[in-house]
Amino acid sequence: MRQFARNTTLLIGLLLAGIARAEIVVVVNANNPVSSFSHRELVDLYMGRNLHFPDGSLILRLDQTPESAVRNEFYNKLVNKSVAEVNAYWAKLLFTGRATPPQTMGDTQAILSAVQSNHNAIGYIDSKDLTDGVKVVGRVN
Predict the structure, then answer these.
(1) 51, exposed or middle or buried, with CB in 10 Å at 0-12, 13-18, 19+?
(2) Which residue from 11, 14, 44, 125 puts its CA 20 to 30 A from 89's CA?
(3) Are the C-beta atoms of residues 48 and 99 closer than 8 Å to each other?
(4) Which regions in the chain score pLDDT beneath 70?
């Protein structure tokens, strides 16, 4: 009986942990013709290796603030790096002049507003914050 109670408690804990985890979605303006990005394409975009949409237009990449839990989870899932490691990566590229990091925005609402008003913007948010005016083009899980 004790073993059953322990296993049940463990199972409930695992289920709740799964429910509590955020799903990070990558969004663009609802009128943007892009329908999806692969995980590899998102890595290339957010690590500065590709700065253009398939039609050749320049992408405005948007980042959450460095203290944001969404940013931490995004980079952990995208490139298996902490925000500090990603910042170190960008510091190295900035020093050599090879690339610039995504533009940091104030919060999720700022990202949503920028994406809704700029056809070439791309950002990432927690899926629970999705609104009209943006389109999901990728998931980072």
Answers:
(1) middle
(2) 125
(3) yes
(4) 1-21
**Residue 125 token pair:** 């948010």
In angstroms, the Cα distances linking 66 to 48, 102, 106 are 17, 12, 10
Q: What is the pLDDT of residues 44-64, one digit of tens each?
A: 999 999 999 999 999 999 999
Instruction: Determine the Cα–Cα distance for residues 35 and 12; give it in Å rounded to an integer.
Output: 36
Give the pTM: 0.83
Eight-class DSSP state of 52: B
Q: What is the pLDDT of residue 20?
A: 52
Task: Give the C-alpha separation, 118 to 91, whole Å.
Answer: 27
Q: Residue 122 forms beta bridges with which residues?
A: 28, 61
